[in-house]
């Protein structure tokens, strides 16, 4: 469960050290994962994670509970990472980019239907690349908006509405990012037939 | 429902599944296979998506919390205590000491004990015994003056300084973490 209890947040806001430590401990993996999905570099992600928690400690008192705490925190992290990319002079992919691109597989409806046939092949059902490294490599090949949307989507208990709030995008755009991201991931993670081990 | 629509809905989210979709999947081997495949993808990606930060980063974040708390002004930490009850032994000891100090100072200022009229059971006799003790005689003989007030205040301040959130403990802890 990613969402901390209201009591823990209140104690942290009151300056209770144990509560602050617990809050940071419970969120550090999620914050680091978001930073990794945007920065795509462990050193930069670590810098952004530190900056995010410094900002969190300074501005925790301003959190009034209007939104879920995780939504508020992940939005903070996302903005810090986007600023970090700009400061480093690295290209910042627009999060609301919904158009198809050379790397996206958003083709025609018939192409997508044919593409989804990969799931119906018995051999591909058991030959999905499953190691964490392979999944992360596949995620890195997605566009930034798809990668961030999928990262948030697979966090525990984060809803579409929360993801839209974090990314500052309309709900349907977020759904589209997730759907296209999953399709693309399926393509990237499907093991080609020639790589399958010989059973003879 | 067409297979394309079913695939789109399956890719969108499990929670949005409708009766129409369920019915279609039950009667369509292709879409049933698509659903299993997407379910497998969800499991695989979910297991890999959350990345634990490196140990040194975790250590830095922990230090960040310590430095943040140590760097807060004393009045914010005192105010924070009221909202954050803690079971830390040192803090409880300090809170007990501070309460006793406040009680003794109040005793001297208002002379409240001298006016107590117990009405329950043997409490009156018990209080008489307490009042007759040498310690009570000493304490009740004290007069409100700057010297005794200062002594008790210093005791309270020392207790606070060595408590978890006090100046000395915070500084010492920060220094200890910086040492190689």
How is the topology of this model organized?
The complex is a heterodimer of chains A (200) and B (180).
Chain A: H1 6-13, H2 17-39, H3 42-59, H4 69-87, H5 109-116, H6 122-126, H7 132-140, H8 144-153, H9 160-167, H10 171-189
Helix pairs in contact in A: 1-2, 2-3, 2-4, 2-8, 3-4, 4-9, 8-10, 9-10
Chain B: H1 3-12, H2 19-27, H3 29-49, H4 55-70, H5 74-83, H6 89-110, H7 123-132, H8 134-141, H9 146-162, H10 167-178
Defining key terms:
heterodimer, A: 200 residues, mainly alpha, 10 helices, globular, disordered C terminus, B: 180 residues, 75% helix, elongated
Short description:
The complex is a heterodimer of chains A (200) and B (180). Helices cover 64% and strands 0% of the residues of chain A.
Structure in words:
The complex is a heterodimer of chains A (200) and B (180). With 200 residues, chain A is an all-alpha fold. Chain A has helices at 6-13, 17-39, 42-59, 69-87, 109-116, 122-126, 132-140, 144-153, 160-167, 171-189. Chain A starts with 5 loop residues before the first helix and ends in an 11-residue tail after the last helix. The relative contact order of chain A is 0.12. Chain B has ten helices and no strands. In chain B, helix 2 (19-27) packs across helix 3 and helix 6 runs antiparallel to helix 9. The longest helix of chain B is centred in the middle third of the chain and has 22 residues, at 89-110. The chains are: A mainly alpha (200), B mainly alpha (180).
